[in-house]
Amino acid sequence: MKIEKINASMSVSDQILPDDITRLKADGVEILVCNRPDGESAEQPSYDEIKTAAEKLGIDAYAIPFEPGKLSDAQLEEFHQLLASCKKIHAYCRSGARSKVIFERANTLPKSAAPTGANNRAFDVVIVGAGSAGIATAASLRKRNKSVTIAVIDPSDDHYYQPGWTMVGGGVFDVKSTHRMTKDVIPSGVQWLQAAVTGFTPNDNNVSLDDGGTVSYQQLVIAPGLELNWAGIEGLEETLGKNGVTSNYRYDLAPYTWELVQNLKQGKAIFTQPPMPIKCAGAPQKALYLSASEWLSSNRLKDIDIEFYNAGGVLFGVQEYVPALMSYIEKYRAQLKLSHTLMKVDGNTKTAWFKQVDGDGQERIVETKFDFLHVCPPQRAPQFIRECELSDAAGWLDVDPATLQHKQYPNIWGAGDVMNTGNAKTMAAARKQAPVVAQNIANVFASNQSRVAYDGYGSCPLTVERGKIVLAEFTYGGKLAPSFPAWLNNGTKPTKFAWILKANILPAIYWHAMLKGREWMASPM
């Protein structure tokens, strides 16, 4: 028997004998597949002989025999379903060639073809969410331990690089560059279950799905992101994408932002920011700066009035960056209206209503007209998180801010925007969190009691004009945490270097490093 290892969970060989099963068992093989029809040669042991020997040692055996060049679609699908089990498989035929062929062809089938309705599926690690944090955690964990079985649960066919949408709205990126199919970003060796999570039974280590199935786990990572509550603003859903109302917080609307920016010649442009927490707290004002930069360069700013309605009491949460940002508010002649929360929009009459709270806590409704309205919607944890026992009183996943381990259930972890940690909800935060969670889970499987910690790092590249960015970087408590020396990038001032980083480098790092388990400047200490 000559074994050829294809990957960590797949090997092939020429014809095996019953005595070879012991070696396969020692190698961790859980499933044995025969791709050779009985009777091809006189000395060939029958499949039944092999199956009997395998089952005595606890190995499941399957017969998917085919003649060279005569592999059927049904056989291909059957083998694909075995691959979806995430168990260690060994396949054999006369020389191993047919087994390689069926593996290679089955491995190209869409991962969504894997069954999602079966009950009693079990994995070492289950990750809820195939967004940035979920995929990065899966990739980082595979980097540390290729023997663990991992499943990622997410219903969406689409995966997005959301930090790019600000640049789309500013006419810098093509929106298509921010999109991939989910099946194409799932790490090798990880199974994608295309379903929606409906609930958890943490005492039984089970996740419930909308197809009626359940998935069990040893370790669970919850990383579904947050929910954009468009319905939280009266009339908004009815007018999004028309009547001059747009948002860079949606893939299909960011191009409309740029269309409106190009077409607006005069009038009033309004930008809004809801109460915290939101993902990328700087994004609402990034839209303002890039729009104003275009209007300034095209000599239209003198005819456009800009207003920024911010539900918060400050322009930006880390004081050290405010002077630079205020200089651009003044440069673009924008009126800064703090403690104003968007409550209602009427696109037909181009009217917006805001709740204003004064210094004494008194509320009043402010009505204003607009020609251009960029909205950042209120945001919250997904409903299945808000309504489960794993959340805190505000509905966010309740975890330790350092280890990212759930406060009540030690085999549950969080990553990304869904947590109640005090960091900024940014892509940079997820990039730092994923290796922490992966390392801590790897330590659990290695019976290592030590834990690494996340320091609250977040980054917000504030695009104050086309070609310059204020690169805000900070940890818990708003402590500045610059990644680069001051001579290269002074983080409290706008620099061309930060623009190059945002426009040319970070997208490549996202697609080819973060989602691949390559932890450049993100590996935990």
Automatic annotation (TrEMBL):
| Needed co-factor(s) | FAD
The FAD/NAD(P)-binding domain is annotated at 123-244
Keyword terms: FAD, Flavoprotein, Oxidoreductase, Quinone, Transit peptide
Q: Which Pfam families match?
A: BLH_phosphatase (PF04273), Pyr_redox_2 (PF07992)
Q: Where is the Beta-lactamase hydrolase-like protein phosphatase-like domain?
A: 6-103
GO MF annotations for this entry? FAD binding; hydrolase activity; quinone binding; sulfide:quinone oxidoreductase activity
Per its UniProt record, what InterPro entries does this chain match? BLH_phosphatase-like, FAD/NAD-bd_sf, FAD/NAD-binding_dom, Prot-tyrosine_phosphatase-like, Sulphide_quinone_reductase
Answer whether the UniProt record assigns the keyword Lyase to this protein.
Answer: no
Which processes are annotated in GO (biological process)? sulfide oxidation, using sulfide:quinone oxidoreductase
Q: Which PANTHER family match?
A: SULFIDE:QUINONE OXIDOREDUCTASE, SULFIDE:QUINONE OXIDOREDUCTASE, MITOCHONDRIAL
* Name of protein: Sulfide:quinone oxidoreductase
Q: Which organism is it from?
A: Arenicella xantha
